[in-house]
Specification:
Layout lengths: L1 H17 L1 H11 L6 H14 L6 H5 L18 H13 L22 E5 L4 H10 L4 H11 L5 H10 L5 H14 L4 H5 L9 E5 L2 H25 L12 H14 L35 H12 L6 E4 L13 E8 L2 E7 L3 E8 L5 E6 L10 E7 L2 E6 L3 E8 L8 E2 L11 E2 L12 E7 L8 E5 L7 E6 L12 E2 L3 H8 L13 E13 L6 E11 L4 E8 L10 E7 L12 E7 L5 E7 L5 E6 L3 E3 L3 E5 L6 E6 L5 E3 L3
Helix pairs in contact: 2-3, 2-5, 3-5, 7-8, 7-9
């Protein structure tokens, strides 16, 4: 039991170290803005550090007893989720009138003498959001943080809020949703900006005259304390001095300096990926001919920590560009098409440093937390005019390319260099160009991993490509299982008609996109059968983007579908939003307009109100309408609930 308890604490410590910036950002958001930004920054850091559980004293003192070994695996309530929950509880206790007064004692925080710390100032949108947040209770701020910082869906966030002690999680989420809708800008983007980042702070001096007076008084008091310590022999166990402000500052400076030392870069053994259950970027070995070039690595780390004024910096949506807090992991260092490239991973982000000959360096940041065998299978190592190259994971045994707009064409082999770099692959078309082809990479995982399978990824302008999947309609209308790989004939045919819509997702930080064929409908005037498809793009930062399409019979396999609706920051078409309704105006060959609507299988009927009034007792509806007649479409769900169509 002693070893199990110590392991739990060590697991929690590892979670805090790995996810420290996101935990501090969440605590800073939940803490009352009335505290002021300086104490709020310090308190947020103190709460996260205080969230580390203690080893129980009885477990430490108990004599070892021979017994059956404990089962392997984390104990309940350990790891990141437990640390996040403890951080939330501590932060919520600071709300006036919430929790016992003892819970709101100021925890041990970093000591800062003579300076005021505050996050970087944002623009007008950030200021407006900060003012709005100051007018709502802490549970509402916590709900927004769980949605937009942690990427939780409403059901997950509700459970976390309840576990954290929020009396009415439903009310907190309703208020958070109202604030979300009333905001003039994307709340998720604003909360991930520097305005709410207590790990990247600016400094200003405190009141200099008052501080000088206090120094004089402190010197007298310090002299008295020194004399008393010498006489009484006060000390700490081990005879050394206790923690001090100078010691804390020196320790922080030491950690920051270590993060910039090439010799301290983390490097995974070449075969670690074959002996671990965690297949993500932490299992990648360091590759590239320049992996031992300490001068190159030092330059990359220095530019990351303090970019020169002429450096070009890009980051995917919701990705911080803060300096490394600890030594990152080296994934690659080498020459790519005449450019010296270094790729680093800090547990949450990929950082690509590029050093062109005779030009200023560039940095590209991308979130990749919680990657897996497919979303951590490749990264974009180089780009050019109309082409790019992948660096693939060591567990990818075979790589090919194919055109999504030609579902019947076979995949073509993609050559891999010994260091894992592919040949050049054409890039998909930009948003303002013709969509004549859509190149994707098709990877097959090695037999040495637990689940060998083939999957598709596509480049959407970020460092990490997006994983493409497919799911046919289920008997109960809800996705019954995780989406399937889109490499089969049915999945490829669906993506042939959907691929060009991916152009709108470039630069959104998309992790994966799933095509769900949620309904089929017979079209009026004998026009055949159409398929309703909901394409859901999940981003690395959490919020989903949804596009509903009607795909009527087409003369060519790649004819695009008709967009029926789009939605952002929604749970629709996921396991947390398993029901969906779509509607569209459709014109027959005779020139007559119809309102078409369909819902997933759990939708038992469809109602139309407004300028058009109609009802259907099934999951589909087709009614003649004027092209511009207003109509509101809702679906009927079991239990009397209703569901509005995706607008």
């Amino acid at each position: 039991m002693d070893e199990r308890t110590r392991a739990d604490v060590e697991r929690a410590e590892a979670a805090i170290v790995e996810h420290y910036p996101r935990l501090v950002r969440l605590a800073y958001l939940v803490l009352p803005p009335s505290m002021g930004r300086h104490p709020r920054v310090l308190t947020a850091h103190g709460l996260v550090q205080r969230a580390l559980p203690r080893v129980r004293a009885r477990a430490r003192l108990r004599r070892p007893v021979r017994a059956l070994p404990a089962q392997r695996g984390p104990a309940p309530g350990t790891g990141f989720t437990a640390v996040r929950l403890r951080t939330l509880r501590l932060a919520l206790a600071y709300e006036p009138g919430t929790g016992p007064a003892a819970a709101r004692r100021l925890p041990s925080v970093p000591v800062v003498w003579g300076l005021r710390l505050f996050p970087q100032a944002g623009g007008a949108d950030e200021l407006a959001l900060d003012q709005a947040l100051s007018g709502v209770p802490a549970p509402v701020r916590a709900a927004l943080g769980l949605w937009h910082l942690e990427g939780l869906e409403e059901d997950e966030a509700r459970a976390v809020l309840a576990d954290a002690g929020v009396v009415d999680p439903e009310a907190a989420q309703r208020a958070a949703g109202q604030l979300d809708q009333a905001a003039a800008a994307d709340v998720a983007v604003l909360l991930n900006s520097g305005e709410f980042d207590p790990c990247t702070v600016q400094t200003r001096p405190t009141d200099l005259l008052r501080r000088r007076q206090r120094v004089r008084a402190s010197l007298v008091a310090a002299a008295v304390l020194v004399v008393g310590a010498v006489v009484v022999g006060v000390g700490v166990p081990g005879g050394g001095p206790g923690p001090s402000a100078a010691g804390s500052a020196a320790s922080a400076a030491s950690f920051a300096q270590q993060a910039l030392e090439p010799e301290r870069l983390l490097r995974a053994p070449n075969d670690q990926w074959a002996d671990t259950s965690r297949l993500d970027f932490t299992a990648w070995p360091a590759r590239g001919r320049q992996a031992g070039n300490t001068k190159l690595l030092a330059r990359a780390l220095r530019v990351w920590a303090a970019p020169p004024t002429d450096a070009r910096i890009t980051a995917t949506a919701g990705t911080s560009t803060r300096p490394p807090a600890r030594p990152p992991r080296l994934l690659f260092a080498g020459l790519i098409d005449g450019v010296m490239v270094v790729v680093l991973h800090d547990g949450e982000r990929l950082v690509r440093y590029a050093e062109p000959m005779g030009a200023t360096p560039t940095l590209h940041f991308a979130r990749v937390d919680d990657a897996d065998v497919t979303t951590g299978a490749a990264l974009v190592i180089g780009r050019g005019n109309g082409w790019m190259r992948y660096l693939i994971a060591p567990w990818v045994s075979d790589a090919t390319t194919r055109d999504l707009l030609a579902p019947g064409a076979p995949a073509r082999p993609l050559h891999l260099a010994p260091d894992g770099v592919t040949d050049r692959v054409p890039t998909p078309p930009e948003a303002d160009t013709a969509c004549g082809q859509w190149p994707v990479a098709q990877f097959r995982s090695s037999q040495r991993v637990a689940e060998e399978h083939t999957f598709l990824v596509t480049d959407l302008g970020d460092l990490a490509p997006a994983h493409l999947t497919y799911l046919p309609a289920a008997a109960d209308g809800a996705p019954p299982q995780p989406p399937r790989e889109a490499t089969g004939p049915e999945g490829l045919r669906s993506w042939a008609r959907t691929a060009c819509s991916l152009r709108s997702l470039r630069g959104e930080g998309v992790r994966s996109v799933n095509n769900w064929a949620f309904a089929r409908q017979r079209l009026p005037e004998g026009a055949g059968e159409a398929t309703w498809v909901c394409s859901r793009a999940d981003t690395w930062r959490g919020p989903g983007l949804v596009t509903v399409q009607l795909q009527p019979p087409a003369a060519r396999p790649a004819d695009p579908g008709l967009v029926a609706g789009r939605a952002r920051n929604t749970a629709a078409c996921s396991r947390f939003g398993p029901h969906v309704v779509g509607d569209i105006r459709w014109r027959t060959k005779s020139g007559k307009w119809y309102l078409l609507a369909a819902g997933s299988r759990a939708v038992g009927g469809i109602d139309v109100a407004g300028g058009v009034k109609a009802a259907s007792g099934t999951g589909t509806l087709a009614v003649p309408v004027a092209h511009d007649a207003p109509a509101g479409v809702t679906g009927r769900l079991p239990g009397g609930r209703s569901l509005r169509a995706i607008p």
